[in-house]
Amino acid sequence: MRPFDFAPLYRSTVGFDRLFDLIDTAAAPRPDWPPYNIEKTGENAYRITMAVAGFRPDEVELTQQANTLVVTGRKTAGANDRQMLHKGIAFRDFTQTFNLADYVKVSGATLQDGLLSVDLVREVPERLKPRRIEIASAAQPAESSVKQIEQAKAA
Length: 155
Known about the structure:
Layout: H1 7-10, H2 17-27, E1 36-42, E2 45-51, E3 60-65, E4 68-73, E5 94-99, E6 104-112, E7 115-122, H3 141-154
Antiparallel strand pairs: 1-2, 2-7, 3-4, 4-5, 6-7
């Protein structure tokens, strides 16, 4: 696949910079190790499960900054002291980055049986959720407006 350079388009756009960044990121090759699954576990809940066999909890680090989740695994120095006759399990260091949607936060993480499970939850603020707006009839606006003005003055 031939990569495209979007740099010349940046000069002539206003407000679409993030769009081209997303296209650049999507076109870049993603690391294929460690393997992972992403599942939807509820209405606003998700789980990322990564196969990190051989890593202890203190060798895996999770960092969320804004809308990016970074999972990093680093083997400690003593892990490579053994003499291996056959090495079929990869113990190499890794960094895996996930772009999260707005208002998605990490709610917890567990490492059990070689599987790292990262639970995510989407918490949309009340002010951004859709709300129903009552429509007044033509005879009511004066009455309801007076009540609203009186309530505003009292507060």
